[in-house]
Amino acid sequence: MRFRLTDDQRALRQGVRDLLARRFDRDALRAAVERPALDRALWRELGAAGFFALRLPETEGGVGLGLPEAVLAFEEAGRALLPGPLVATHLAAGRVPGAAEGETVVTTVDAGGLVEWLAAADVVDERGGEGGAAGGNGDAAGAVALRSVDPLTPLHRVPRRSRRTASEPVAVLLTAAEQLGTATRACELAVQHARAREQFGQPIGAFQAVKHLCAELLVRVEVARAAVYAAAVTADPADVAAARLLADEAAVRGARDCLQVYGGMGFTWEADVHLLLKRAWVRTRRAGGGTESEELLARELLSGAGR
Amino acid sequence: MDLSYTAEEEDFRARLREWLGKALPALPPKPSPDDWPGRRVYDLGWQRTLYDAGYAYVHWDADPTTRLIFLEETERAGAPYVGANFVGLLHAGPTIAAEGTDAQRARWLEPILRGEEVWCQGFSEPDAGSDLAALRTRAWRDGDDYVVSGSKIWTSHAEVADWCELLVRTDPTAAKHRGITWLAMPMDAPGITVRPLRTLAGSAEFAEVFLDEVRVPVAHRVGAENDGWRVTMVTLSFERGTAFVGEVVACRRVLGELAREARANGRWDDPVLRRGLALLEAEFRALWRLTQWNVSEASAGGVPGVGGSVFKLRYSHARQELYDAAADVLGDAALDLDRPWVLDRLSSLSYTIAAGTSQIQRDIVAERILGLPKGR
Ligand SMILES: Cc1cc2nc3c(=O)[nH]c(=O)nc-3n(C[C@H](O)[C@H](O)[C@H](O)COP(=O)(O)OP(=O)(O)OC[C@H]3O[C@@H](n4cnc5c(N)ncnc54)[C@H](O)[C@@H]3O)c2cc1C
Known about the structure:
- Chain A: Belongs to the acyl-CoA dehydrogenase family.
- Chain A: InterPro entries: AcylCo_DH-like_C, AcylCo_DH/oxidase_C, AcylCoA_DH/ox_N, AcylCoA_DH/ox_N_sf, AcylCoA_DH/oxidase_NM_dom_sf.
- Chain A: Residues 6-90 form the Acyl-CoA dehydrogenase/oxidase N-terminal domain.
- Chain A: Its cofactor is FAD.
- The complex is a heterodimer.
- Chain A has helices at 7-23, 26-34, 40-49, 67-79, 86-92, 169-196, 208-234, 237-262, 273-284, 289-303; strands at residues 106-108, 114-116, 123-125, 144-146, 155-157, 198-199, 202-203.
- Chain A has 2 domains: 7-157, Butyryl-Coa Dehydrogenase, subunit A, domain 1, CATH 1.10.540; 169-305, Up-down Bundle (Butyryl-CoA Dehydrogenase, subunit A, domain 3), CATH 1.20.140.10.
- Chain A has a 3-stranded antiparallel beta sheet with strand order 2-5-4, with no helix packed on it. In chain A, strands 1-3 form a two-stranded parallel sheet.
- Chain A is mainly α.
- In chain A, helix 4 (67-79) packs across helix 6, helix 6 (169-196) runs antiparallel to helix 7 (208-234) and helix 6 packs parallel to helix 8.
- In chain B, strands 1-4-5-8 form a 4-stranded mixed beta sheet. Chain B has a 4-stranded antiparallel beta sheet with strand order 2-3-7-6, with no helix packed on it.
- Chain B is an alpha+beta fold.
- Chain B folds into 3 domains: 7-113, Butyryl-Coa Dehydrogenase, subunit A, domain 1, CATH 1.10.540; 119-226, Butyryl-CoA Dehydrogenase, subunit A, domain 2 (Beta Barrel), CATH 2.40.110.10; 244-369, Butyryl-CoA Dehydrogenase, subunit A, domain 3 (Up-down Bundle).
- Chains A and B meet through helix 6, strand 7, helix 7, helix 8 and helix 10 of A and helix 7, helix 8, helix 9 and helix 11 of B.
- Bound molecules: flavin-adenine dinucleotide.
- The site of flavin-adenine dinucleotide has 20 residues of chain B, from strand 1, strand 3 and helix 11.
């Protein structure tokens, strides 16, 4: 058993991190907040780097890697708060022409009826699932825009459908990976601020109440990381459900605690903390929300499987 | 990232399973929790059985993955817990192995492995708990002996121990971490009084130990005089390594039992309760993965590091939540000590205190992993 990153996986993660540092740094993030449009050039660059085609077989023009690598890439995207329907486009690669290359932006109608980035997307994928129904425009008819809480995730809602299928585990897992990245970022920001900001003549990070908030931030990140990475290896739906619940918690509570460490600055538009929290909130609603994962795990628990 | 086990590891697992299948039915009946002499005999007997079968080495020599498999399989099979062997196998033994002389290793390690001698840990004092380095039990040289006076508290297994790994102050003038020495004290030496303390669960798990001019040979000192703090830190880092593997396996089994009990008594239909159990299932799945992660890291890099604090923090709280959930499943029966899980719920209350309180663990995580400034 070697449950740790291989050298190749480390290199891949670093590669994605470098690309995003170059193409989507803090200035770009803040510029995007003021003008929330999808950066098509960046999208194509991601495509060229293999972000969307990561798991497509090489024979189909993909990179031929697996879920663990995809999870690492999505974790970095979450850490940088990279906007756009990344999961839907990644899942459409190989089914929707142009998705793999980053030429076509694909969104999907979520189980609850929410659609992210509808106006910017070229295609609405009906299933958002692997090996499911063919791509092509899903039914986003009658979609109504709502005033999204997250400035970097425009949202529409379509009238509730009767069809209710279980969410695609890969979509759930990649969302969890994004949450993990955002949680990591919240922890990094909180710790940086706790070291730099001084009150009562010392860094606030020397106060135990602040120190312990930071410690709990890290604990949640590391527990979620173990769950997300393991689910990427097993691809077991129950592991995915567990990963999702822990990653949601790490991201949402992490951003909240980070906000507290920031004090008044945390309540401003100018600080990035609210962007972390709002994106984390949006992701908790994806793919049936946490309730679907909880019910799945409850069934698993009762059946005694996986023990 | 690879969660599969090698053929060699699977082979070890298969042979262990087969052996457990034969060895466990031959065990004597479990003694009652209050029968300390009986527990000593039982726990040592199990250790001897492991030794004879060639498994005693697992805690020390085996690579971390083998240890993980051993702890996982013995727990699944319902084998006895380390019990009275805990300090010898997981604290004192590893310390002597790392810091002792050849003669000391020869004297003390084999009897621990063979299930012949029980150790206890005499670190905490009435005025030195979290602030362990404030300990005041004094030792001064008199010829070839140290003469030790003072008192220890919360000493688990003191009543049945042969040896005590003891921290004493040998230089009261030095800075508090600098004047401490590690001694192996024979528990039958004159001047030792053990007074059992009753826990909130009603049993006597630990004791006060009073030391009145107890003579301990200088040859029983491990490490240099006044270097005991560093020697002790070696021990504590072992304490936070793979120590909870079996317990996580056990918690996952309990969760399954809770679900079935809730189904049987109708509470499963309450979505709040059901989803609460599901969240715990997520939690313990993750803790199992974190264990595998830490074990893989330890395999690659040697001694487990401060990552153990991350695990201990989360696990100790999760365990308490598990038994709180058990109480929700039980309803009124949660007040009946004869029902399953009720005593376990009481025992779980010590987890956020023993072996470093949660507050101290958070300090460790914040200062040593996150690099936040010291001071509070
Ligand atoms: C079941 C059990 C078995 C044990 N077995 C042994 C044993 O075999 N050998 C042995 O030597 N010891 C043993 N202990 C003792 C254990 O290590 C101590 O209880 C523990 O270190 C805490 O010390 P204390 O009880 O003196 O609490 P204190 O240190 O007095 O702590 C009281 C409270 O104050 C908090 N606190 C203290 N300092 C700080 C700080 N700096 N910042 C924030 N909060 C702080 C603590 O977190 C805690 O909440 C055992 C304890 C238990 C419960």
